[in-house]
Write a structure and sequence with these properties.
The structure is a single chain. The chain has about 260 residues and is an alpha/beta fold. It has a domain at about 100-165. It is built from 9 helices and 10 strands. The chain has helices at about 50-60, 80-90, 105-120, 125-135, 150-165, 180-200, 210-215, 235-240, 245-259, and strands at about 10-25, 25-35, 40-45, 65-70, 75, 90-95, 170-175, 200-205, 220-225, 230-235. Strands 6-7-8-3-9-10 form a 6-stranded mixed beta sheet, sandwiched between helices. A 4-stranded antiparallel beta sheet has the order 2-1-4-5, with helices on one face. A hairpin with a 4-residue loop joins strand 9 (about 220-225) and strand 10 (about 230-235). The chain binds adenosine-5'-triphosphate and magnesium ion. Adenosine-5'-triphosphate binds near residues 49 and 208.
Length: about 260
Amino acid sequence: MQQPSDRTPADAVVRVEGLELRHGGQLVQRGLTFDIRRGEVLTIVGVSGSGKSTLLRHLIGLQVPAAGRVLYGDESLYDADDERQAQLRRRHGVMFQAGALWSAMTVGENLMLPMRLYTSMTREERERQARFKLALVGLDGAFDLEPARLSGGMRKRAAIARALALDPELLYLDEPGSGLDPVNAARLDELVLNLRHDLGTTVVMVTHEVASVFAVADRMLYLDDRQRTMTALDAPRTLLASGPPEVREFLTRGHAVAA
Ligand SMILES: Nc1ncnc2c1ncn2[C@@H]1O[C@H](COP(=O)(O)OP(=O)(O)OP(=O)(O)O)[C@@H](O)[C@H]1O
Ligand SMILES: [Mg+2]
């Protein structure tokens, strides 16, 4: 496993050093040290309650770590002033686990909202961008629809499109496939790979679906719920062959489906 250093390697978008996650006094994870490499799909996996969503909140600037640092380039996110933190945050798109769109707005308005808040784009530019992002996720006709009229799979796609609204270099997705049938979950995996291919976006995806891991991940970070630390970071097939026992067990249970 990599050791902390003072420099962020050129191919790393984010470097996490000695991160410790707590809720109140409760330890969730500690000793997390890893890079997010430019252009990769990194999946964060672990059983329910292991701390995947909590880690994501620490990576995107929503929860201050109990210890350790999150570096964007050479800048430490939580050491930056508020304005700089906000700028750094704007460079990434996020789809939260609950992933909901605002129900009182159309899909198009949902996508245009971050552009209205954070850019000086005109209404026409915002609409053009929103339609473009919807087309990217295969929702060409959804601009004027209300979210309630979308199917579950379409809603997930729309939430991803919204996360792409500001052209993020990094996309964080928390369980994008949850609640979907296997066919739509597989289509969502394809979408993630297409986005990476077409836009060059680096993707960090939380999932507990083994099929998804094998479909999309260059590397997989395993958060162990008992040891409360990461016990593996490597390509899924490498970990399936020679990872620690808990990781192989995790991967083996879903591998028949993924193969
Ligand atoms: N807001 C909170 N306040 C207190 N404890 C929390 C809070 N959110 C999460 N926790 C606790 O932190 C631990 C990690 O939760 P987290 O939601 O990060 O897990 P997860 O791996 O994302 O789980 P899941 O797969 O179910 O989404 C759990 O023990 C959870 O009960
Ligand atoms: Mg979660």
